Amino acid sequence: MALTRDQIAQRVALELQDGFYVNLGIGIPTRVANFIPQGIDVMLQSENGLLGMGAFPTEAEVDADLINAGKQTVTMVAGASIFDSAESFAMIRGGHVDLTVLGAFEVDVNGNIASYMIPGKLIKGMGGAMDLVAGADNIIVTMTHASKHGAAKLLSHCTLPLTGKGCIKKVLTDLAFIEIKAGKFHLLERAPGVSVDEIIKLTQGELVISGEIPEMQF
Amino acid sequence: MALTRDQIAQRVALELQDGFYVNLGIGIPTRVANFIPQGIDVMLQSENGLLGMGAFPTEAEVDADLINAGKQTVTMVAGASIFDSAESFAMIRGGHVDLTVLGAFEVDVNGNIASYMIPGKLIKGMGGAMDLVAGADNIIVTMTHASKHGAAKLLSHCTLPLTGKGCIKKVLTDLAFIEIKAGKFHLLERAPGVSVDEIIKLTQGELVISGEIPEMQF
Amino acid sequence: MSGFDKVVHSYEEAMAGLTDNMTIISGGFGLCGIPENLISEIKHKGTRGLTLISNNCGVDDFGLGLLLPARQIRKIIASYVGENAEFERQMMSGELSVELTPQGTLAEKMRAGGAGIPAFYTATGVGTPVAEGKDERQFNGRSYILEEAIVADFALVKAWKADRYGNLIFRKTARNFNPLAATAGKITVVEVEEIVEPGQLDPDEIHTPGIYVNRLIQSTFEKRIEQRTTRAAGE
Amino acid sequence: MSGFDKVVHSYEEAMAGLTDNMTIISGGFGLCGIPENLISEIKHKGTRGLTLISNNCGVDDFGLGLLLPARQIRKIIASYVGENAEFERQMMSGELSVELTPQGTLAEKMRAGGAGIPAFYTATGVGTPVAEGKDERQFNGRSYILEEAIVADFALVKAWKADRYGNLIFRKTARNFNPLAATAGKITVVEVEEIVEPGQLDPDEIHTPGIYVNRLIQSTFEKRIEQRTTRAAGE
Lengths: 218, 218, 235, 235
Hints:
Chains C, D: Keywords: Transferase. Chains C, D: It comes from Colwellia marinimaniae. Chains C, D: InterPro entries: 3-oxoacid_CoA-transf_A, CoA_trans_fam_I, NagB/RpiA_transferase-like. Chains C, D: Pfam families: CoA_trans. The complex is a heterotetramer, with two copies of chain A and two copies of chain C. By secondary structure, chain A is α/β, with parallel strands linked by helices. Chain A has one domain (5-208): 3-Layer(aba) Sandwich (Glutaconate Coenzyme A-transferase), CATH 3.40.1080. Chain A has helices spanning 5-13, 28-31, 85-93, 129-135, 196-201, and strands at residues 20-24, 42-46, 50-53, 76-82, 99-103, 106-108, 113-114, 139-143, 154-155, 170-173, 176-181, 184-190, 207-208. In chain A, helix 2 (28-31) links the parallel strand 1 (20-24) and strand 2 (42-46). Chain A is globular and about 50 Å long. Chain C is an alpha/beta fold. Chain C has a single domain, classed as Glutaconate Coenzyme A-transferase. Chain C has five helices and 13 strands. Chain C has a seven-stranded parallel sheet. Chain C has a three-stranded antiparallel sheet with strand order 5-7-6. Chain C is globular, with a radius of gyration of 18 Å. The N and C termini of chain C lie far apart (53 Å). Chains in contact: A-C, A-D, B-C, B-D, C-D. The interface between A and C is large, with 55 and 59 residues.
């Protein structure tokens, strides 16, 4: 069975380590915050200028001056700090954020990522995504393994305009957890009940299967 | 009569305008603060990270955490602000300081300035001087017109390693107030009792004398 | 210290000197921390042909979006321009020129403009459409592109508190691009919720020193929320 | 949030991992805001062959000058190195290598190192000995030189207050290079006068977010004054 959006988030959350500063993109990545394992604390960075993002506010707590990068009202945890956008991206570009999780349209065997623009469709802009992928050493891309119509998104070469070049090492899809190294995809784990063959069929870029591929544990 | 150090400072102070943000170098420039004309307010920038430098402290006010760029204990005026060294030089380099006053060993007809290094002698470093001369549009150099031995310091070409290239437009010496434009010195004013001939004799770079040269007024 | 009193008393005075075809940098992220009354004044003034540099362009009926219906904006440099139907229409029809710039690069370009740094290298955008036409160079085995600084005729800033000398304090994430915008305007105009006397702000707590500020006006703000997201009180 | 507790309880622990021939960035201007106890710990440890990046190098018997007698410093990058007899002796004899860097360029190089900017252009130093060997380029008709970023194995920082997560507040001009140093160390070690619990510092007033800080230690400081200059009480 393909993972649900929440299961993808849950599996990503297992990659968190105590003391990690983490930037979570919009969509599935945001949900990772709901599955932080017991005994582990992370601090969420929001690129509009907040380190230590908390839960959504109660009605009484809503503050127009306190939003996240998705423009949602949020709160701050104890120990949070506020800074301007240049400082926020100094943090990101300088490699100080331990883990970045974000979505994508396509990823390829060379670690290229396309996530912000489909030519001919409406272009809304890259926001902070190009800075995030260029700045982080440790990125997990979350996406569905293939389109609804079965078109592969894990490719030998991205077809869409890139968000970043050679910067992605880990991809978690609804079917598989994949590592990218030396110009190839490497299958690390498969979703419970999903066969290796099924994953191979829906992956266009070269996929290395080394030994028995375990099912994901949650 | 050649101007005293305090008279040089006093003449420089007449160039101040109400609302000027000013950086005063060590030595004679520092004394400019003692001669600010009535009805004019300026704010002093100290490049170690203070805008709104006040008087020296009383014994009771001395604070080891509050010094100026000359490492002297100082105070702050109401409306002062504190910032880090990168912000301080962003301010300077970005041209936000209205007037910079600093000393020099040599200045030449092309607006070059040498002020930090005499080869063979002890080299202490340029501190913030290179940033200040590169950043300010409006700089007044204060120095003695010639050495004790009568060697000119206003030259056709600086002989010492430069602090900045083509950045000086005004020089106030103990003998004269000089403007630099189009590759020449222009005599604007002379010190009271000092003759034009005397100034010509002690100036090595081309000096333009245009009409009657007035004596400085204080 | 009258020479340092930056306070003006009308929006007309605040935006005096703004003329057609000028360049404007605006602080704000989404609708958070935007100089909403200064924007309204530009709408009211009817200035046209503007080049706007701002992370976003507001929504249809609030923020910088207000300058769209009368086609006051000729070009915008931004990182994200969704949530605005009239914007999309003008962009698709070619009436509005849009230059997309990564958010961190945009922030750094403003800072560089204010700081006298004409250009800097960054890895952001290497190998993407953003790199087109830009110098590329290796440092320590990695590729970087050269990005140039931005300055503008006017910078519009929203702060929380200020003293009369223009020393500014921002509040929470309404800070965002505002301190950077403040440094990069030939004329920097700031609107604030409260103006106090010099000496009332702790010098250690000032985010933007008054040296960057030319005009200061006190006002009230709607502070519209784009995505009001809440949890139940007991959660 | 134990993973974010940066507090260590000994100077040995604070400087653990520092070995010969490493690079160190230190905050401080003159003797103001210097990490005096961290420096003493390095003297005590006897680490040698160090490359030091700091605006100044202390005086003979205080601050970074303490590392000179046992010849622990191989090279220093600084903007001003006066007021130190042993320093002069080692520099003149060639035992100590000195790279003079303009103060503003030094600050910006540290900031760039922390911010992932590998290099930037500046007008500072054009046409001077500082420009030798550096790329020169024109922007808008003016010449600029290319300066590269600085990072170090260790960054030593002196702050005033911190919370356990390493969020820092500096006091008056003791701020100087410290926030920049904090961003540019592979391991950033901070000593402070007071450590409070997370939540006790206003998020809007934090100068350095804890993300830059690896180790934090509370101590007392001599805070020696280099130029004690006073006026009479009545003046």
